[in-house]
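Q: Hi! First time doing this. I have a protein sequence and I read that you can turn it into a structure. Is that right? Here it is:
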Amino acid sequence: MTEGFDGQKRETLRRFAAVGAAAPFVGTASADDADDENETREAIRGYVPTTPGAHFSKLRDDLRLGTGEAQYHLRKLEKAGAIESVKDADYRRFFPAGRFDETDKRALGYLRRETPRGMVLALLRDPDATGADLASALGVSRPTISAAAADLERAGLLDRTDGYALTEPERLLTLVVRYADSFDAEAVAFADDAASLVAYDP
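A: Yes, that's right. Below is the predicted 3D structure, encoded as structure tokens:
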């Protein structure tokens, strides 16, 4: 590992550790833990609530951790009840313990996938969008849209009875806006314009 990379890793861990130190989780560090272990664990505690539903590889890479290092600290945090994980197809996704219900977890899992997230954003913008519209907007093939739509339907997030209709638009809108920074630039732009999508009818 080069000195430059090690410095970047340290800065990344410190940034998320500052969030973790203020997170409303039960403390997991003990007096016997090495300082590096404390900092790494606090970084994970800060990362998971700001990036809920991130899978193992993303967490590991974003925090610049080794595979064994990440596994070790995640096991410790999960055992302590600070975080929880769910299996999602080939991925294991991590969440702050007790923060999300099962539907939220499923929704966040799909929002962390590029094509389903793009479809959700497009349908929140235009509930009447067709499969062809979605394929054109996302720059993917119709079969790709159909496959992602089937996955979203199985997850209970999409109804394909008459076109494509989100079954939980308010929930999805809330999750996208709240965690936009942890998705991508398109989600951030969507969140910036989200007020225009919400009807106010007192």
